[in-house]
Amino acid sequence: MHTIRVGLIGAGRMGRVFAQTLAYTVAEVDLVAVADANAQTSAEVAAHFHVPHHYGDYRELLKREDIDAVVVVTPTATHAEVIAAAAAAGKHIFSEKPLAQTLSECDAAIEAVERSGVKLQLGFMRRFDAGYRMAKQKIEEGLIGTPVMFHAASRDPKRTSLEFARRENSGGLIMDMGVHDFDLARWLMGSEVVRTYSEGGCLVYPELNEVGDIDNALINLKFANGALGAIDLSRNAVYGYDIRTEVLGSEGSLLIGTLQQTPTLMLTRAGVTHDTVPYFMERFGEAYTNEIRDFVTCLIEDRPPSVDAYDARKATAIGVAATLSLDEGRPVSLDEVQ
């Protein structure tokens, strides 16, 4: 079996998650180097995961001839820049979502990747979750007939930091959180989104308004085939990490996700209670591993990535349209932002 020599770019919270997977979980990977803008952080992560080389500048990592591919887990606003540089260096790329915050940046990254001939896969990990994969299979088998309505709830148990919440850093609530649901919507429904309409506000954390973000949003979708969609996003699900999706078809419905983490109910005089999923790693830890394993397999087998740059661009386009709808208080056609 061929070994893929990988460099990790970005060693923050999510970078450490991927370092664990690359160093210990996917057998076909040799984690050669790690880079982070904070040189101390890259050194600490390298030492913790026994990575032989570390850098404070990712460009130094890209100069290494013994690296086949990179995993990009840098801040959201830098994804396109790092992807373009990695492509120019001839490295295959796995990048966390989103591809970029604007469509012009998406296009620049795509052009760089296509010019170099490397592979690029995006980190829409929900596609690699067992529940979502089974739902996709059942839809394709015709179990629920023709999908006619999509509904998703993505709710975090706490607000993000104010610095991250700034649009220039995260893209804002709709782009940052909604992009996963935008990708799922077009993937599960088998149709492109053609119109969005958003409502949102600072209803729980007024301090988010000071940095130009919101804590709750509702987004309606219209699909090219006439189907309908609705997404609710929240940063104040204090009861747990709540990620659920429903696809209603002409012959039935599929429900994906549950708030309950373990199959245990506690029954007492006070009532019936159960635990809840605390946060994203408890819910999607296996999916994060599966997406990396899939990326490595696509390199070994020389096949196209499962989630390519055009999938990522389309998710960003929906996010751009939905954010514009929020700002201007009107429905926005995808044609307006393309």
From TrEMBL:
<protein>
    <submittedName>
        <fullName>Predicted dehydrogenase</fullName>
    </submittedName>
</protein>
<dbReference type="GO" id="GO:0000166">
    <property type="term" value="F:nucleotide binding"/>
</dbReference>
<dbReference type="InterPro" id="IPR004104">
    <property type="entry name" value="Gfo/Idh/MocA-like_OxRdtase_C"/>
</dbReference>
<dbReference type="Pfam" id="PF02894">
    <property type="entry name" value="GFO_IDH_MocA_C"/>
</dbReference>
<dbReference type="InterPro" id="IPR036291">
    <property type="entry name" value="NAD(P)-bd_dom_sf"/>
</dbReference>
<feature type="domain" description="Gfo/Idh/MocA-like oxidoreductase C-terminal">
    <location>
        <begin position="136"/>
        <end position="334"/>
    </location>
</feature>
<keyword id="KW-0560">Oxidoreductase</keyword>
<dbReference type="GO" id="GO:0016491">
    <property type="term" value="F:oxidoreductase activity"/>
</dbReference>
<dbReference type="InterPro" id="IPR030827">
    <property type="entry name" value="Myo_inos_IolG"/>
</dbReference>
<dbReference type="InterPro" id="IPR000683">
    <property type="entry name" value="Gfo/Idh/MocA-like_OxRdtase_N"/>
</dbReference>
<dbReference type="Pfam" id="PF01408">
    <property type="entry name" value="GFO_IDH_MocA"/>
</dbReference>
<feature type="domain" description="Gfo/Idh/MocA-like oxidoreductase N-terminal">
    <location>
        <begin position="4"/>
        <end position="124"/>
    </location>
</feature>
<comment type="similarity">
    <text>Belongs to the Gfo/Idh/MocA family.</text>
</comment>
